[in-house]
Write a structure and sequence with these properties.
single chain; binds magnesium ion; six-stranded mixed sheet; 11 helices; Rossmann fold; binds adenosine-5'-diphosphate; four-stranded antiparallel sheet
Length: about 290
């Protein structure tokens, strides 16, 4: 639904407020959302308990199988940690989910109805899958505020962005996100003057402005100080539940703080999965990853 339609709807609701008896609607008592189709465009159907579903996904680069019959799923609101040695295919998996790389075979679904392999990278981002690359990519010459505002504009497309102004709901949202990413005191600072950790938070904030349903984060605490890492753990714990998160990291104490289920990737497929204690005790995991 476009902001125009939302505004129009809000105006109509306001116009009728007071005219309708408590508990009844204009249409005679039916719930306001009665006419909404079960799987409207933009609605991710998670009634089957999964927001992301990969089955038997494979991709080769010059004959080398970077992803090899990979199967994995994530529940709505889950914070899933992914660990594994360098070259295991963690980043390639994110490339596949976000439409950057096409797999040779396999199934990739967003909810139970959206076949991600049918969509382009930009369309997938629009549908609500946000991705954070390893290096922060904020606009250094812009302030913290401007970066967040821009994230909303660009998400709405170029044409819309020319006439874009924050409405009050979006302004509230921006303020809330500033608080969440610990940058409420730095609104007018140039992004280029932030610490590495703050830049990472700002980029996460830019993703949050687009209200993604699923967030993919590739080594988010690499290069952070211990304190920044601890605050990032807090941040992720507040995001989980409202969003689903997939976090690739090597920092085991960070993983310990945030993790529920940990998936160990190796040679392009799942080697082990369970709590951190379970996978850390797994001989195969120790051999390929932890024991080094
Ligand atoms: N675009 C590409 N072209 C060729 N090889 C690639 C490409 N992307 C990844 N690879 C290879 O696939 C393997 C998995 O890489 P990657 O997904 O980056 O691993 P990880 O993120 O787990 O360290 C590596 O051997 C890497 O060199
Ligand atoms: Mg990687």
């Amino acid at each position: 639904m476009t902001p125009d339609l939302l505004e129009e709807g809000a105006r109509r609701i306001q116009a009728h407020a007071g005219k309708v008896e408590q508990g009844k609607t204009e249409s005679g008592g039916r719930a306001a959302g009665f006419s909404r189709p079960a799987a409207a465009p933009g609605v991710v159907d998670t009634t089957h308990g999964r927001i992301l579903y990969l089955e038997d996904v494979s991709v080769s680069f010059d004959g080398f199988k970077a992803i090899n019959k990979l199967s994995l799923d994530i529940a709505p609101g889950e914070l899933r940690c992914i660990i594994g040695p360098n070259g295991a295919g963690k980043t390639t998996m994110m490339d596949i989910i976000t439409g950057k790389t096409r797999p040779d075979e396999g199934t990739v679904f967003f909810g139970s109805t959206i076949d991600l392999l049918r969509y382009k990278e930009a369309e997938i981002a629009q549908m609500g899958i946000g991705r954070k690359f390893q290096k922060p990519t904020v606009f250094e010459q812009l302030t913290v505020f401007e970066n967040l505002e821009l994230a909303l504009k660009t998400h709405k497309g170029v044409a819309a962005s020319m006439f874009f102004r924050l409405d009050s709901a979006q302004g509230d949202r921006l303020a809330e996100i500033l608080h969440t990413i610990h940058l409420a005191d730095s609104v007018t600072r140039m992004a280029g003057n932030l610490s590495h950790g703050q830049k990472q938070w700002l980029e996460i904030g830019m993703l949050l402005m687009q209200d993604p349903k699923l967030l993919l984060l590739d080594e988010p605490v690499a290069g952070m100080t211990d304190e920044e890492t601890a605050r990032t753990a807090e941040l992720f714990l507040t995001l989980k539940g409202q969003h689903s998160l997939m976090v690739v990291e090597h920092d085991m104490s960070f993983i310990r703080t945030i993790s529920e289920i940990v998936t160990v990737l190796c040679d392009g497929s799942v080697l082990a999965q369970g709590t951190l204690d379970q996978v850390q005790a797994d001989e195969r995991v120790i051999e390929v990853y932890l024991g080094r």
